[in-house]
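Lab notebook page, bench 4
Experiment: in silico fold of construct C2
Operator: M.H.
Input chain length: 85 residues
Purpose: comparison with the prior construct
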Amino acid sequence: MPVTLDELNRFHGFAVEKIDAGENDWTLYDLLEQWEIQNPDPARVQADVLAVKAALKDLEIGDRGMPFEDHLGALAVQFGLESVP
């Protein structure tokens, strides 16, 4: 979703408050991460909630998924990467 001028101004105010409060050892990425934690995107939160509900439903019917190592290997094959030990 494209950023709006209002959202950019609110982020700017947030960053200025952090710096004015003496919290100036953060990187821009740290500030953005904190901003996103405190101002989550409702659509993204809803998608996460739906994904967790779907995973829980899969668990209820006995689907235990795939071991991480197998999944990582499948991704390596899918994207033509060297396999990971």
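Observations: The mean pLDDT is 90. Residues 1-39 form one domain.
Next step: discuss at group meeting.
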